[in-house]
Specification:
Layout (H helix, E strand, L loop, with lengths): L3 H11 L2 H13 L8 E5 L5 H9 L4 E6 L2 H10 L4 E3 L12 E6 L8 H13 L1 E11 L1 H4 L5 H6 L11 H10 L3 E9 L7 H10 L10 H11 L12 E8 L4
Parallel strand pairs: 1-2, 1-4, 2-3, 4-5
Antiparallel strand pairs: 5-7, 6-7
């Protein structure tokens, strides 16, 4: 897994920046009840989406939490006084504190046990009648049917711990019911061959360690593709919303 303290400074620029953040925030807000008053963004990262969640709904009180101190500092600069450092498996908030809890691009980073624990924690801090919104199937979203995907098709795969069916089952086990879904484009995240080679060598593909022989084999095959700097189509990400019963 990447060191997100080291990644903080470059994180936004490498992941679509403000356009992607705007698309994500708009999709999340579209799944929230209009009377939602308090929202927690779990694993808020640099706060680039968190800030837009706050700006996009007047009167919505937004807080953020992230485990990486450097990420949390950046988020705090965007939302002063509303971001804390904390573990998503043990959220530093009392029970039933928020009308909505959001985890965008988090669950795919975790193993099965941690995904279960994070969903349980998000439910714990959610008020009755509140809504939990999360991204699902992140890895699959990046397969857009391009020549890059064809090259990478034979690489070792990690289990998809954020599969929609898995997350839905975990939410149901916590007493939540389905409350909607949405999709949004990962603007600016279309891969080019040259950028994908750089990502391989930086460790973004967790089953291909930087410097390993298989990693370099895939890098060489990617280097043989045409249009090395032309981005292929952007991915499209999926959101699922779940409601905690009011009773």
């Amino acid at each position: 897994m990447l060191d997100y303290d080291k990644e903080a400074d470059a994180y936004d620029a490498l992941r679509g920046g403000e356009p992607r953040a705007a698309a994500a925030a708009e999709a999340v807000l579209g799944l929230l009840p209009q009377d939602c008053a308090g929202l927690l963004d779990v694993a808020c990262g640099t706060g680039i989406v968190t800030r837009r969640l706050a700006a996009g709904r007047p009167g919505l009180r937004v807080a953020g939490v992230d485990l990486a101190a450097a990420m949390a500092r950046m988020a705090a600069s965007r939302l002063p006084g509303r971001v804390v450092v904390g573990d998503s498996r043990r959220l530093p908030f009392p029970d039933a504190s928020f009308d909505a809890v959001v985890s965008v691009w988090l669950l795919h980073l975790l193993d099965d046990t941690d995904v279960r624990d994070v969903v349980a924690e998000c439910v714990r801090v959610l008020r009755p009648g509140g809504v939990y919104v999360t991204t699902v199937d992140k890895a699959a979203a990046h397969n857009v049917g391009s020549d890059i995907d064809a090259v990478l098709a034979s690489r070792p795969r990690s289990p998809a711990h954020d599969a929609a069916g898995t997350v839905t089952a975990l939410a149901a086990a916590q007493g939540l019911t389905a409350a909607g879904q949405a999709r949004f484009p990962g603007l600016g995240q279309g891969r080019s061959p040259r950028r994908t080679i750089a990502d391989l060598r930086r460790g973004w593909f967790v089953t291909l360690p930087p410097g390993g022989p298989r990693t370099e084999e895939f890098a060489a095959r990617l280097a043989g593709l045409p249009d090395q700097d032309r981005p292929r189509p952007d991915p499209e990400f999926s959101l699922r919303a779940f409601r905690r019963p009011a009773g």
